[in-house]
Design brief:
118 residues; alpha+beta; 50s Ribosomal Protein L17, Chain: A; 3 strands
Length: 118
């Protein structure tokens, strides 16, 4: 039973899961919307919302922290601090939305789009 188990494993070990979430977070920040599965989108949402909230502080420590979480990607860190943090300066949370796309291909109801709200 999965009592009090908060994270999804996504059928991966910890290193693979961390690499997957980093990659999805980088793509989401750079493109401001990506298509993925529902489970990955639900797992990505709190991950990216913490990054945006931390980037709103706009300190050197927050820049370094976010850079280390995203695998030292300079472009993504810069866009997160300069563009997205300024956009959501007055917003207290809820920076992303998940839209289910329904049937894509043979699988039914498994794909979703996660994007930043305007």
């Amino acid at each position: 039973m999965r009592h009090h188990v908060k994270t999804r494993t996504l059928h991966r070990d910890k290193r693979q899961r961390t690499a997957l979430l980093r990659s999805l977070a980088r793509s989401l920040v750079m493109h401001e919307g990506i298509n993925t599965t529902v489970a990955k989108a639900k797992e990505l949402r709190p991950y990216i919302e913490r990054l945006v909230t931390n980037s709103k502080k706009n300190t050197l420590a927050s820049r370094r922290s976010i850079a280390s979480i995203l695998g030292n990607d300079v472009e993504t860190t810069k866009k997160l601090h300069d563009t997205l943090a300024a956009r959501y300066a007055t917003r207290a949370g809820g920076y992303t939305r998940i839209v289910r796309l329904g049937r894509v291909g043979k699988r039914v109801g498994e794909s979703a789009r996660i994007e930043f709200v305007q």
